[in-house]
Design a protein that fits this description.
The protein is an alpha+beta fold. The chain has 4 helices and 10 strands, in the order H-H-E-E-E-H-E-E-H-E-E-E-E-E. The longest helix is centred in the first third of the chain and has 17 residues.
């Protein structure tokens, strides 16, 4: 909301200065008010180009310098991926997918499908006898990009791309 107010202030200052009215405060005067901060949205992407974070960054104006301080929030998806291990990548024969005890309560099923199709090549429900690990024999699969998909108990689907040699 504050960014819209600042934008309207900039536009009004530009238009007022263009018409000779100089009694309005400049943008620098408005930005230098103590406690004035703008909330921006920061996006982060993984190596495959998937969006992994959308959150805030605070821009604080101090005279002419700006400091960008990113929020220390770690997204829930980042926490989830810290407890997941997918190896070896690129895979030749057997792909191993394992997860931590914390993620065991979240995961309902693990699936694998080829990147350019919608049919699952492999799907496994998360049963207690799995011991938090699934092995997929990919020896007969074609080379290419595959997607490992986790269906979570809250309805979210979290995916990661892997490569088959």
């Amino acid at each position: 909301m504050k960014s819209y107010q600042l934008l309207s202030l900039i536009i009004s200052c530009i238009s007022s200065n263009a018409f000779g009215q100089k009694n309005l405060p400049s943008v620098d005067q408005q930005a230098a008010v103590p406690g004035n901060s703008l909330q921006d949205i920061v996006f982060r992407y993984d190596e495959a180009g998937n969006q992994i974070y959308r959150g805030g960054a605070v821009i604080i104006d101090q005279g002419k310098t700006q400091e960008i301080i990113e929020n220390a929030k770690i997204s829930e998806e980042d926490v989830f991926w810290k407890g997941i291990q997918i190896y070896p990548v690129p895979v030749k024969d057997v792909l191993t997918i394992s997860w931590s005890e914390e993620n065991d309560q979240l995961i309902e099923s693990v699936s694998l499908y080829q990147h350019n199709s919608i049919a699952f090549l492999f799907e496994q429900k998360n049963y207690p006898n799995l011991a938090r690990q699934v092995k997929v024999n990919m020896g007969s699969y074609y080379m290419g990009v595959y997607v490992v998909s986790f269906q979570l108990s809250d309805g979210r689907v979290v995916t990661r791309n892997i490569i088959k040699d």
